[in-house]
Amino acid sequence: MITNRRNFIYLLSGGTAAAFFGSDTNFSWATSATAPVATPDVFKLPPLTYDYNALEPHIDAATMKFHHDKHHATYVKNLNGAVNKYPQLKTKTVEELLKNISKLPKDIQTVVRNNAGGHLNHSMYWQIMGPKGGGAPTGEIATAIKTQFGSFDAFKTQFNEAGTKLFGSGWVWLVREKSQLKIITTINQDSPISQGLYPIMGNDVWEHAYYLNYQNRRPDYLSAWWNVVNWTEVDRRFAKSLKA
Ligand code: MN
Q1: 206 Cα to the center of ligand 1, angstroms
Q2: Cα–ligand 1 centroid distance for 63 (angstroms)
């Protein structure tokens, strides 16, 4: 009797268990790393909410098209490839993945770091820019910048210097750490949230973000970029950071 019971449990835990449940396709199995079944991708490329040429002359249409449709799309594709190997990770948000890189399976840690980072960073980047952008900040973020940096101009100068000095590819950020605002840089597609910092705004200083229009003149791109900043969205992110 005990043997039969063991056999029954053994069968339940194996691939033939479906037979016991007839054709109930709603029955949910724990997924495994080697699940051979193709599952739909969970991460999607967010559409641009304005035209490719909407940020001209500061950012040209060709750069926007390649940057969004090719570069960002590739980060999304590679991120999906990584989590499709471990379907139990598909319920995690991009933020959850980036806050727990060291807990992920070893073989996908670097892929997730680069591509979840690339996906999150770019999703923010498209939103904090816009066709009617530029000018001085508004709302609570304006006050916070003035308090922390003395003036908006002083803040811009520090931000641009940090972005200019960053060697190679990466991002320059305004982040919140506890009650302080700070300017930091990260290399590659590293996200501030992996360091426990909330990214309020960030500029992409990879060459793919500016090379078609500015070639080697990264400082010119950094200066021009302020003309397309969507301060309404930055202020919204600042408010969100205070609740995080
Ligand atoms: Mn980029």
Answers
A1: 6
A2: 10
Task: Quick: pLDDT tens for 68-90.
Answer: 999 999 999 999 999 999 999 99
pTM: 0.84
Going from the Cα of 4 to the center of ligand 1, the distance in angstroms, rounded, reads 60
What is the DSSP code (8-state) at residue 145?
H
Give dist(CA 108, CA 132) in Å, integer.
40
Query: Residue 96: CA atoms inside 13 Å, Cβ hemisphere, count?
Result: 7
pLDDT digits (tens, 9 = 90+) for 185-202: 999 999 999 999 999 999
In DSSP terms, 172 is beta-bridged to 185, 203
**Domain around 174:** 140-243
Distance CA 237, CA 235 (A): 5
Q: Which helix (H) or strand (E) holds 135?
A: none
Structural domains counted in the chain: 1
- Residue 67 makes CB contacts below 8 A (sequence gap 6+) with 122, 204, 208, 209
Q: What CATH number does residue 171 fall under?
A: 3.55.40.20
Question: 3-state secondary structure string, 6-45?
Answer: HHHHHHHHCHHHHHHHCCCCCCCCCCCCCCCCCCCCCCCC
